[in-house]
């Protein structure tokens, strides 16, 4: 018998069988947000209503045994970008969707990731989107292979073969037509399972939809408030998630620290709304410590990027997941209570020269 906490949805099967999952879910009375949370693991299969699982199996024309699979270890790709690795890790071989309006920095994040990946063992591929988009040139400069059609993309990836890890970016327009799902199915059909796919929507329309990309392993939601306050990368920890975070896959230390950090950041945001309206003197004394530590934690999660060095004049920083976990734990335990928030902005780890 399968353990309840060791189960997950077969996301790749859902992606293949129900490419238009948003409308399909609504038609059978399912909330797209619920389906999205089940796919990324934000809601565990064990907590899902039976009728929801039965409806999904019906949509995919499969059995419950096909839909619900044992949660084999999902491998995390460490980006050394603090907020991504801590709150919404990249699932190797999965699909990640970026949800952002224009100007929130999603292309900068992708360009930075691909700059880093290019220095590793990954092949990087961009299916060129139509039109002109600010920030696209930075992305193009940091990608090894540029393609112009789905068919061309298939040929290039097939020629690389299944032994090489591949990072691939495509625009949502190819998701809407079903071509991305077909590409993924065709690649799996020839034994290529090593492609990690990044999906973006350069129109910004994606933010108004519940399930804009279909089933995902990882969701990165960008945040207008973080952008307005120049807190980059502006990925919202409270609404971004990943299937790597399911209990069966995540290291216990990571899970414990991440959950505590989310609790502090959530409360900090609530208190910050009060401060913005009435001033900090309105915060209850009992909540002041949480507010201050949340403020410092948010500042620590900012990070200087290598590709932005000519513009920001700040050296790019790569921080290992273990350093991030140690630092976040220190911040939450009060080790930097005496530091000013500005001392934590755009640093690497807490051992950097900036804090000595």
Mind explaining what this structure looks like?
Helix 8 (136-141) links the parallel strand 6 (123-127) and strand 7. The chain starts with 6 loop residues before the first strand and ends in a 24-residue tail after the last helix. Helix content is 43%, strand content 12%. Helix 13 (252-278) crosses helix 14 (285-300) and helix 13 crosses helix 16. It has 356 residues and is of the alpha/beta class. The chain has three domains: 4-70, 434 Repressor (Amino-terminal Domain); 95-216, Oxidized Rhodanese, domain 1; 252-355, Bovine Mitochondrial F1-atpase, Atp Synthase Beta Chain, Chain D, domain 3 (Bovine Mitochondrial F1-ATPase, ATP Synthase Beta Chain, Chain D, domain3), CATH 1.10.1140. The strands form three sheets. The chain has a seven-stranded mixed beta sheet, with helices on both faces. It has a two-stranded antiparallel ribbon with strand order 1-2. Strands 3-4 form a two-stranded antiparallel ribbon. The radius of gyration is 21 Å and the shape is globular. GO terms for molecular function: ATP binding; proton-transporting ATP synthase activity, rotational mechanism. It is found in: Membrane. Its main location: membrane. Keywords: ATP synthesis, ATP-binding, CF(1), Ion transport, Membrane, Nucleotide-binding, Translocase, Transport. This is F-type H+-transporting ATPase subunit beta.
